[in-house]
Every structure is written in C-alpha cells, then in structure tokens.
Amino acid sequence: MLSFSPDELTLKEKKKFLIGSVIPRPIALVSTISNTGIVNIAPFSYFNIVTYDPPILSIAVQRTDGVPKDTSRNIFENKEAVIQIVDTDNVEAANLTSASLGPDESELDISNFTTVESKAIRVPGLNETKVRFETELYDSMTIYNEKNIPTADMILLKVKHYHINEKIYHNGYIDPIKLKAVSRLAGNDYAEIGKLFTVKRPE
Fold first, then answer.
1. Is residue 199 in a domain?
2. pLDDT, tens digit (0-9, with 9 covering 90-100), for 126-138
3. Strands 55-62 and 47-52
4. CATH number for the domain that contains residue 141
5. Mean of pLDDT values over 108-113
C-alpha cells in the first residue's frame, strides 16, 4: 500500500487522488436565476443526499481565485435552485453547460435545454431531465485552504417539490435502469449504470 502525506503532494495530485477514487459520483445539473433574470445551468459531481427528514441535498461548488461561481452567487442571493439528475439522454447537453460564460450569459443559449415553470419556487427546471428537485437554501459554509483563501462553497438545499417522470416510476420506486443516470469519474470519463447486485444488510 502506497502512503502519502498531504504535505508531500501537489494540489493536482490531491485532486487526482480524490476524484480518481471517490467514484462513481452522481451529477447534479443545477439551474439558478440571477438578480437580472438570467438562467444559469451548471453540472456538479460533488453532490449527494444529506438526509431525507427533512429532504436535503448537498453540492460543493469550487471557487476560482476565491471568487464564487454564478451558481453559488445566485443561490446566496435568491435562496433557490432546481437540481436535476444527469442521465445518458442529456449528458452531452449537460457537458456543454460546463463552458465558462459571463454572468450575463445563459447556458440555455449553448445547449438544447428548454425550461419548465416550477411549482414552489421562481427558478425554472429543465424539460429534458427525468428527475427534478425544486429546492431552497437551507445552509451553507465556505471552505478555506491553508492560506486562508476561500476555495469552495458547501451548499445544503432543502427539497420543496419533487418531479419524477412517469416512465421511470413504478409502485413507489424509481427504476434505475430506466432513469439511466450517469456518474462522473476522473478526467473526461463518465459511467453508466452497470451490473446490479444485492447484498442484504445484517439483522
């Protein structure tokens, strides 16, 4: 077993060790809206469930030179976001939304996504997704590095409304094969749902 101290590693090596081993990571496609009404869309693979009572999801949004990304800024200003699940049918369009655009530009203009009005919040969802969670800001914290520079925003979002495509829903359950969610690996690599198996938990 190889062994490393963080002090021995470059920033790139630290990142590669994490994103190469903490896999597969689900991908949140997050839509937000700015104070000027610009719809922002961005994918995040630092994403997961925190708890279901109340229903809370988490995303970690990396900063650039200490500056928050549009997603974080919009959530902090307007307290709302829609989280969508990336799947094999929309992953190409989701990847396009990772392009660097200015705060006055919308990823709707460079992808084939179209919007749908939300039920409980002002931020629109995306028609081309099978699962949407309308959310409001629950809590957040800023992550700092050893030089006291802010490097990421950890954001907790409480689900206010659920949207599930009827084609993937059966008897109270979501069919993972029909959802066709994709996960993030390292580099430019993604993974589809592969072999399913069952391991019973101990009594």
1. no
2. 999 999 999 999 9
3. antiparallel
4. 2.30.110.10
5. 94
Q: How is the beta sheet containing 25-26 ordered, strand by strand?
A: 25-26, 182-184, 190-192
Q: What pLDDT shows up at residue 109?
A: 93
Residues 6+ apart with CB under 8 A from 1: none
H or E stretch including 13? helix 11-21
* Residue 107 structural domain: 26-192
- In a domain? residue 21: no
C-beta of residue 87 within 8 angstroms of C-beta of residue 94: no
Between the two ends of the chain, the Cα-to-Cα distance in Å is: 33
Whether the per-residue pLDDT at 102 is higher than 90: the answer is no
Q: Is residue 18 part of a domain?
A: no
How many domains does the chain contain in total? 1
Residue 10 falls inside a structural domain: no
